[in-house]
Specification:
Distance between the termini: 37 Å
Oligomer: single chain
Number of helices: 8
Strand order of the largest sheet: 1-2-4-3-5-8-6-7
Shape: globular
Strand content: 15-25%
Largest sheet: 8 strands, mixed
Order of helices and strands: HHHEEEHEHEEHEHEEEHEEEEEEEE
Length: 448
Amino acid sequence: MLASLVGLGVANGQQGPVRDPAEGPQGKAQAKVPAKPAGAIARQSIDEKSMRALIHDLVSCGTRLTLSSWTDPKRGVGCGRDFAVARLNEIAKESGGKLQIVVDKFEMQNERTGPQPVHLENVYAILPGTDPALAKTVFIVVGDVDSRPSDVMDPKADAPGADDDASGVAVSVECARQLSKGGKNRATLIFGVLSGEEQGLLGSYRMLDWVKEQGYTVGAMMDNDIVGADPAPGGPHRVRVFSGNGEIEDADSPSRELARAIEEIDGREAIRMIFRVDRYGRGGDHYVFYKAGFPAVRFTEPLENYEHQHQTPRTENGVEYGDYEKYLNFTFMGNVARDNAEVLRQLSMAPAAPTEVRLKGAVTPDAKVSWEAEEDSERAGFEILWRETTEARWKVFEFVESAGETVLKGISTDNHFFAVRSVGKNGARSVATASQPEVRAAVGTNKK
């Protein structure tokens, strides 16, 4: 028996030869596909100094709990809003007026606001798209301005909130600074500073409604929440990107495709994909967009320290609790800002994602993938993607120039998942659209 195992190459922990049949053409010639977009955002262009200054200003407000004052200029959530708006107005001026600032005021109520609706405000910095056909598609990045002490209903306790989530606000604002300088975004970009996250994702619910009211379609939503610390030895480490599972054979969702696009754009050395909608038993602003069916993910630091979040500042048994600036890592945070900005840059330059992607070919030797797409003179074509059902990442199977149906000769529909994405002449790729399986009607009682 041992001799036969050695012959198969599995002794001593070695991997044996693959015993699966080859599917489809091997080494198939590919059409010339545009390279990735030029002009990537340089890490050294990230302004860590201004990010640090904004976080310091936000922490100086004492608390930014949603239930605190919206009118006191020195303490409370209104103080935090004022600092965020002031910084965004500076950036808007530097952009020559391209960046537009909106303060959205509203009221909401739930069990974490008390018996009456409470006042809330979101801030949106909007960079309109340059392509009329794509300008109503928005790519969104947000952080939340509110903070909380141990008791989420206590507006008087200090809640510095340096990491949770002044860090996310700083990332969103820095993305606005970076991208408002370029003006190459075909789609519209929105840089959000939301309120009410700790009170039940209230600002995110409102933002989704507001986006719909403006007639926008969400191309992607990226939530940066707790992205400021990286205390473990050996850093900087990868930022975690959480994405929810889908209903397409329990394997894909628009959010999962966004996570894959983020990793491909920024690199596996920068991004750690986590195939969960969020940290275990917890939630964030992206959840609202995810549940609405839009591509939405959460960025969060590699390893959280729970002594420095959701804690009223104090010292107990020699342990210091509190979300202070001194625990932040601005090298790591700057990396996160760069990663977000580069994703927004590339996705907003890309053609629209394909629609109505369908997979046919059950009980046949060939998979058939079809899709639809609006005309776009800046699109080079489409990449048909495939992967083993146990693999996390796509591979490119074929590049084709036109929408319609493509027959994948000798490729079983059983053994792989499929998707399609648009490719611009500038090299920018859309978020992939996973194929929906063909629904075959049963014939008689012969069900296999």
